[in-house]
Specification:
By secondary structure, the protein is mainly alpha-helical. It has helices spanning about 5-20, 20-35, 40-50, 50-65, 70-80, 85-95, 100-110, 115-125, 130-140, 145-155, 160-175, 180-195, 200-210, 215-225, 235-250, 255-265, 270-285, 285-300, 305-315, 320-335, 340-350, 355-370, 370-385, 390-400, 405-420, 420-435, 445-455, 460-475, 480-495, 500-510, 515-525, 530-540, 545-560, 560-575, 580-595, 595-610, 615-620, 630-645.
């Protein structure tokens, strides 16, 4: 009814094709070609329904009927199997449609470098507004000719930023990186002069693209050029820091480095900017670059203790103890009353086997900058040197000055326990519990007191101490303490009172419904058929708690689902990289089921994370004989301790 309607012919032919009547389908589509010779789709359908040479013949008729159809020429070229034949078709196509960018791209892709350059020279004449062809020609030309091509491109397309970016990359690649800022600056002024609106986000993406292309100078120049575009003065620091963090997430380290470098020139007195830049170099850069950055940082922010300490630590980790000492001496001059720097100087000497120098530093610190932590560290030195009398004297003197410092009461009780004086230890813990009631760390004293009573065979007293500790902590802090609830549950289990332990655990979860420690214990205590449902409940209440995640990993491990257990333990160490027990569980799994490479990787990552928390980890790491062991060796000892406890 409508013979000039191309889609109708195509639909009719396809209906016959579906019915398996190919001859009829071809006859119908041929009539369609006769009735609608100017329809590309009809010719393409006719070609598809034919086979071999007949398909080529149909397209030959098609391009005669519609010589400017790019689709038909490309389809014809695709049907050719030999490269020379494809070239011949595409060159004939370009004679008919010299303004088609697609045809030029296809034709150039088939040529060698020399012929491609000749073709692109012609292509930019025929399609002068297409920047891709200009840039492709630049890549094939020599340095001198590439500059000429770019100049022509700038004249032809004065509103195209990519031409300026390519010019900058070209100069950088030929040893003229110093010209990067000049080129990008000129480019920005030229573009703005031609009415182009500079979009900061788009240019930042170009900076990242330049980094990926191996042009760091171009990347930095683009960042500096657009850093302030569209950003209010009061929002600069916040915006730049957010930009840098996003770049780091995407792996664009050089772009983030350029953002921080520019921010430092604008805010040289802002400690946070220097610190972020230093952390980037610490994780992604070279040690020399980090050292130079920190040297500049303390020049502008001499009161920023954290920058001095970072610089000293980096030198120490590099094995350059004299340089670390020198940095700390300079830090003393700038911050004579800084507790952190005094303690860093002490740690440097103490960890490097210089106990006498460490002792002298702490003596001076007690005179000039006396703080509770200084007294505590002084007692630790004497403890590790085996001087119990000196340790006792320092603890008593320190507690007389700082009676509300929980850790010193814990150390005093531990000292009396080591000396076998249980009565004095009990008295120290009791006094500490009374004087440090409002301290967040006071549960450690109640736990030590309960442990002391249980060790003496007074399970009832231990139970009473834990209950008293829970009540007093809640009264002082208006919240429950999960550690004390967990200790009470485990005390009942050790006494063989499983029913009482379950009741206590249920009460604890009512008091602290989001306590991962208690949910993890609940999973471990549950009968095997109930553990899956307990895990689901735990994840609802404490989804991202590393203790829960680790307990679920142990569940998978017990079912021999090694890969799942590994994934959950990886999640645990990602959520809490400072949780040593999680690292130990992961390392133990790799020792039993992993490869040497996996084991080495876990050791290395643990050493970088420097974990300090974890029940078993702290008991091993704080033992006097392990005081100066690196994290990797502590990790191995924790695994042994876990294996022994499991047996």
């Amino acid at each position: 009814t409508n013979p000039k309607h191309a889609p109708g012919w195509i639909a009719a032919a396809r209906l016959e094709e579906v019915a398996g009547k190919m001859t009829t389908a071809r006859a119908i589509i041929q009539k369609g070609c006769d009735e609608c010779p100017s329809s590309e789709d009809v010719w393409l359908e006719a070609s598809r329904l034919q086979v071999g040479e007949l398909s080529k013949a149909v397209l030959a008729q098609g391009v005669r009927a519609i010589p400017t159809s790019v689709k038909l020429w490309l389809a014809a070229a695709e049907l050719e199997h030999e490269v020379p034949s494809k070239k011949r078709v595409l060159r004939r196509a370009l004679e008919q449609v010299p303004s088609s960018v697609r045809l030029w791209k296809e034709a150039v892709s088939l040529e060698g470098e020399e012929d491609a350059r000749v073709m692109l020279s012609r292509a930019v004449e025929c399609c002068p507004q297409h920047v891709e062809l200009w840039l492709a020609l630049v890549r094939l030309e020599s340095y001198r000719n590439a500059k000429k091509v770019l100049n022509k491109a700038r004249e032809t397309i004065p509103t195209e930023p990519a031409v300026w970016f390519t010019a900058c990359k070209l100069e950088e690649a030929n040893g003229n990186a110093a010209m990067a800022d000049k080129i990008i600056g000129r480019g920005m002024r030229s573009l703005q002069g031609h009415g182009v609106i500079i979009e900061r986000e788009a240019w930042m993406k170009e900076a990242e693209a330049a980094e990926r292309a191996g042009s760091p100078a171009t990347c930095g120049a683009i960042v500096r050029a657009v850093a302030t575009v569209g950003v209010e003065e009061q929002d600069m620091k916040r915006t730049w820091m957010a930009d840098a963090e996003e770049c780091i997430k995407r792996g664009s380290v050089e772009t983030a480095r350029a953002i921080y470098a520019h921010a430092i020139t604008v805010f040289p007195g802002k400690k946070g900017v220097w610190l972020r830049a230093a952390k980037l170099e610490q994780s992604q850069g070279e040690r020399e670059r980090l050292d130079a950055l920190l040297r500049r940082a303390v020049t502008y922010c001499p009161q920023a203790e954290v920058l001095w300490l970072m610089g000293a630590k980096e030198q120490w980790l590099a094995g350059n103890v004299p340089a670390a000492r020198e940095i700390l001496q300079e830090a003393f001059v700038a911050n004579p009353e800084s507790e952190a720097i005094w303690l860093a100087a002490f740690k440097l000497e103490f960890e490097n086997g210089e106990p006498e120098r460490a002792r002298i530093i702490l003596e001076k610190a007690r005179e000039r900058q006396p703080t509770a932590r200084v007294w505590m560290k002084s007692a630790i030195v004497e403890r590790e040197l085996g001087n119990s009398d000196a340790e006792l004297a320092l603890l008593k003197e320190g507690l007389a000055k700082y009676p509300a410092f929980t850790k010193m009461w814990a150390m005093l009780g531990q000292l009396h326990e080591r000396l076998g004086n249980r009565v004095a230890a009990r008295e120290a813990y009791h006094k500490g519990c009374a004087l440090c009631a409002k301290d967040e760390k006071v549960p450690m004293l109640w736990l030590a007191l309960a442990r002391l009573e249980e060790g003496a065979g007074n399970a009832g007293k231990a139970r009473a101490m834990l209950e008293q500790g829970r009540q007093r902590f809640k009264a002082s802090h208006n919240r429950a303490c999960p550690e004390l609830w967990l200790a009470a549950v485990r005390a009942e289990r050790r006494a063989g009172n499983e029913q009482a332990a379950s009741v206590l655990l249920a009460k604890g979860l009512q008091e602290v419904p989001s306590a991962g420690l208690l949910w993890a214990e609940s999973i471990r205590m549950a009968p095997r058929p109930q553990r899956k449902s307990k895990s689901a409940d735990a994840l609802k209440k404490a989804d991202n708690d590393p203790h829960v995640v680790r307990a679920i990993a142990e569940l998978f491990l017990s079912d021999r689902k090694i890969d799942k257990a590994r994934n959950w333990l990886e999640r645990a160490v990602t959520l809490a990289p400072d949780l040593g027990d999680a690292w130990a569980a992961l390392y133990k799994l790799e020792l039993e089921h992993g490869t040497d490479e996996r084991q080495s990787a876990v050791l290395e990552r643990c050493a970088r994370a420097q974990p300090v928390h974890g029940e078993v980890w702290q008991s091993v790491a704080k033992a006097v004989e392990n005081a100066h062991l690196p994290a990797g060796q502590v990790l191995k000892k924790v695994v042994i301790a876990m294996s022994t406890a499991a047996q």
